Amino acid sequence: MSGSDQGRGSDLLDVQDRARFEQLVLPHLDAAFNLARWLLRSRADSEDVAQEAMLRAYRFFRGFHGGDARAWLLQIVRNTCYTWLEKNRPVELMTEFDEELHPQPSASPEALAIAGDNRDRLNRALETLPPRFREVLVLRELEGCSYKEIAVITSIPIGTVMSALARARQRLQRALTLSPAQEASRGL
Amino acid sequence: MGCDYTRTALHGYLDGELDATRAAEFERHLEGCRECANTLGAEESLRSSLQRSGLYEHAPISLRKKIRADLDAATAPAIASRIPVWRWFAVAAAILIVASVSWYAWPRLQSSATSSPVTAAEIIDAHIRSLQPGHLTDVASTDQHTVKPWFNGKLAFVPPVKDFTEEGFPLIGGRLDVLNGQDVAALVYARRKHLINVFVWPTKEPDTPIHPPGSRQGYQWVHWRHQGMEFCAVSDVSASDLHELAQLIYQ
Known about the structure:
Order of helices and strands of chain B: HHHHHHHHEHEEEEEEH
CATH topology of the largest domain in chain A: Rna Polymerase Sigma Factor, Chain: A
Oligomer: heterodimer
Helix content of chain B: 40-55%
CATH class of the largest domain in chain A: Mainly Alpha
Number of helices of chain A: 10
Number of domains of chain B: 3
Shape of chain A: elongated
Largest sheet of chain A: none
Largest interface: A-B, 59 and 46 residues
Radius of gyration of chain B: 29 Å
Strand content of chain B: 15-25%
CATH superfamily of the largest domain in chain A: RNA polymerase sigma factor, region 2, helix turn helix motif
CATH architecture of the largest domain in chain B: 2-Layer Sandwich
Distance between the termini of chain A: 44 Å
Distance between the termini of chain B: 83 Å
Number of helices of chain B: 10
Number of domains of chain A: 2
CATH topology of the largest domain in chain B: Phosphorylase Kinase, domain 1
CATH class of the largest domain in chain B: Alpha Beta
CATH superfamily of the largest domain in chain B: MucB/RseB, C-terminal domain
Number of strands of chain B: 7
Strand order of the largest sheet of chain B: 1-2-3-4-7-6-5
Helix content of chain A: 55-70%
Number of strands of chain A: 0
């Protein structure tokens, strides 16, 4: 598979491009939508953004040189989401990613299991995390991405994927075991 | 509080991202470290909650449709572009010859009005739409003498309707559909457990042979024009089955 035909002048991709795109990229539409939905926390907005991202992916498709099509697509989806957030909800991006990790005792597996069995609570807890924590969890736990794929998609060095996940999981545990009142007072 | 392994290896272990040596090392450590054992238990519980949660959100059908329309707009038209340029020249030459030799026999060729071609995506959309409950047929009958008259008065043309049960393509029924803003007849045939839609509408374009099948998203279509009618058969059956039905209809 090669992208060596990038030089072709036409804006329109031809039927061969289309067939290749449908075979390699389109099957990952669910992954694209799921990532957008969790980054934007809204189905309606993610529909628009996923649509835009898919069209961008198609336009860039001749620059795709083979390899992991899902990671390639999700990288575009993620960038499109962040551009959208910067424009529409800049406040959400202001949380510092590199906040100090304060080791805390883990909640008991039993307590977590009970909290985690409540889908709404889990949903809310995940949504309260800053986007950069949320995305690594979604990619790892819902999408099943490897550390290498997460590094490609999020543009963080592969050596820091594990610590990003560790922090994200700790934040999720904390959010899950917070009482509803504490949860409310934390706002976003 | 603060076992170093919790920071350096536990999550890699949980995620299956440690190499064999480091994984074995961590397992040895785990036997003696209560903190890591607790943390690992909590993390495993959290993971299984997340994975059982049904929080994964699948793309809605409306999004798939919008994307398909976007891709269509960014791609050269499908059915038209499947036909190589030289064929268009051949067709044009044939029109000229036929028109000059037998002007009266082909009066309608003078009309240069050509509607925009129906794209493969529209055909496939119409096919998928028809498979939704209650959408397949307006007249359900395996009898061609029931289906054909049903179209009378509903369309400005009479589609050819034949049953091919003996050839393995029983007629299921018919319905009205709309393609590219135009009323078309849709004939439904079965092939084993699969369904085939044959769309028929009038055309002023000259006859063509049955074009080689096109394929997209697991659906096949074949397209041809015959005696003033344009046909497009679409299904998830194999391309050869579809071609076989097309030949039966063509005859």
